[in-house]
Amino acid sequence: MLLALVGVFGLAVGSFLNVVISRVPRGESVVRPASRCPGCGSPIRAWQNIPVVSWLLLRGRCRSCREPISVQYPLVELVTAVLFVLVVVRLDWTWSVPVYLYLTAIGVALLVIDLQTHRLPNAIVLPSYPVVAVLIGLAGWGEGDGTALIRALVGAAVLFGAYFAMALAYPGGMGFGDVKLAGLLGAGLGYLGWGELAVGGFSAFLLGGIFSIGLLLLKRAGRKSGIPFGPWMIAGAAVGFAAGGALFDAYLGLI
User: Fold this and answer.
1) Highest mean pLDDT out of 34-48, 97-111, 226-240
2) Which residue ranges run through the membrane (predicted)?
């Protein structure tokens, strides 16, 4: 029952993330005006805002003008709900759950925005620093784990510093949006453990490299093609969160 409630909460958050994804890149408020059809401007009524269900009932079209409604909307809602449940399953009911639910939510929004615009908006990333700092501080206090707080600080500093150095060395290949996101991901991974930090940081380059090589082999991109790296940073962090400790221990066992 509790996991089902988490899933419902994730659907609601996913619905809000659709607003964030649509408006933040354009510099618009996520609060006002109320949601409207981008085609005809008709206000979206309350029953039309029920996550996933409304899209299915409307058959993916605006009730007024019949313009198609992107499948992105229910997908973002569903993915957010599933990820929220997986976060709770991974961590159980601990003080650190709010940290990773928040990072999951902004991760979903940033991933979609970066794919669409090749940007990681400061309006999402920068305010997340104090939010994550407070949530991690509360988690460390509640769990009585000062060492985890130190790891979070070190993780943020290490990933931020590494990405900052890469951005300076190769400005065309690494943006400062990636640098700012790296600090947040480093804090979250570091709080969990050194293995999660190492695997999460490395997985971003591994996954991004495999994808880039695949595009080159398929001739869908050239050596100078711009490929957003934020989604791979987020995917790598997800790998570190889900299995970083076990993978790191297995690697140490091999050597």
Assistant:
1) 97-111
2) 74-93, 99-116, 123-142, 148-170, 200-218, 230-252
